[in-house]
Specification:
By secondary structure, the protein is an alpha/beta fold. It has twelve helices and twelve strands. Bound molecules: S-adenosylmethionine (SAM).
């Protein structure tokens, strides 16, 4: 079948699938404290999800990342991973999680064919962790990391959102923590994705991270870095791996964007900062067959903007990150 390519010649090979907009954390930059969730019947069923992924795989999507909300709170997540891995054309499934439920699910996910996990970890300080996540327990996340390593969901990568005044002094410690355990780290600029978060106060460009003495001691910042997908990879001075730097705001990578997002309620979300989407759920529930779905996905992909535009204001967003899936 004809590959899925947008107006700017970017082939779409990667789909991030939010399986729920529920989460057992309330991270300050991601979701409002009293976020409203979709009702169960608004959320895609496993058969609807696999139908959409099957159609997209036939158009060249080969990598799926499960996200949310917290993907591990979706009942039957390991079964879903198994179902998606069985779809022709899907070469890799991965998952982004806060890790707290991994002790319960890591083995089942591995058995279902999940390749690896990215784990969100912004601080190694239990009190700060509680504050950032709205009540989460660091010890549970640490147990989850151990479970992922034990079950071989590797390479485990930590995702750390850099926040001025909150965790900028901890980044070097997070590099050490990760490299001692054979994990990768990716530092991510905080994006204005949620109504009501004082984003301007906490935003810190990656360039400033690279200028910190404790980072320069550990990372070969002089290298220009390999432009990969969305991240710049720089080697550690110790020779024990690399660190990723993701700068969606200060150094965008839109020309290399190969991804689309599917929200839990079945909207194909075209570009992270843009509130632009098309409901595939409504199409399926309205009786669209595979051909109809394919046509709609192609039409939607045509609308993918050339570059993501951040408004730098979090006011009035229709969807917070928790609804889109990171
Ligand atoms: N609950 C899972 C987790 O904690 O990893 C998956 C969903 S979460 C929305 C996915 C990723 O998005 C996390 O790594 C989170 O840190 C990141 N994220 C959420 N809001 C963000 C923001 N405003 N800026 C940058 N990253 C953000």
């Amino acid at each position: 079948m004809k590959p899925l390519v947008d107006r700017f010649g970017r082939a779409i090979t990667y789909l991030r699938v939010s399986v729920t907009d529920r989460c057992n954390h309330r991270c300050n930059y991601c979701s409002r404290p009293q976020e409203k969730h979709r009702e169960r019947n608004q959320v895609l069923s496993f058969s609807e999800l696999t139908e959409i992924i099957t159609v997209m795989a036939s158009m060249g999507v080969e990598k799926i990342r499960f996200t949310g909300g917290e993907p591990l709170v979706r009942k039957g997540i390991a079964e879903l991973v198994g179902m998606v891995n069985a779809i022709e054309g899907i070469r890799e499934t991965t998952l982004t999680t806060n890790a707290t439920l991994l002790p319960r699910f890591a083995r089942r996910l591995k058995e279902a064919g999940l390749k690896r996990v990215n784990i969100s970890m912004d601080t190694l300080d239990a009190e700060k962790f509680r504050l950032i996540t709205g009540g989460g327990r660091l010890s549970l996340a640490l147990e989850g990391i151990e479970a992922a390593l034990r079950e071989g969901l590797v390479p485990v990568k930590l995702n750390t959102v850099v926040m001025r005044g909150i965790n900028e002094d901890e980044l070097a410690g997070i590099i050490d923590f990760a490299s001692e355990r054979g994990m990768g780290v990716r530092f991510i600029e905080c994006m204005p994705m949620r109504d009501g978060f004082d984003w301007k106060r906490h935003y810190m460009p990656i360039q400033e991270v690279l200028e910190r003495e404790d980072i320069k001691e550990r990372v070969v910042v002089e290298e220009r870095g390999e432009p990969g997908g969305a991240e710049h990879m720089l080697p550690l001075r110790s020779g024990r791996g690399r660190v990723g730097f993701i700068s969606p705001l200060s150094n965008r990578f839109c020309e290399r964007c190969n991804r689309l997002r599917l929200t839990a309620d079945g909207r194909l979300h075209l570009c992270l900062p843009a509130d632009m989407d098309v409901s595939l759920r409504d199409a399926i529930r309205g009786g669209a067959d595979r051909q109809g779905l394919e046509a709609l996905i192609r039409k939607a992909t045509e609308m993918k903007p050339e570059a993501g535009v951040y408004t730098f204001s979090t006011e009035g967003r229709k969807k917070s990150m928790i609804h889109i899936g990171g």
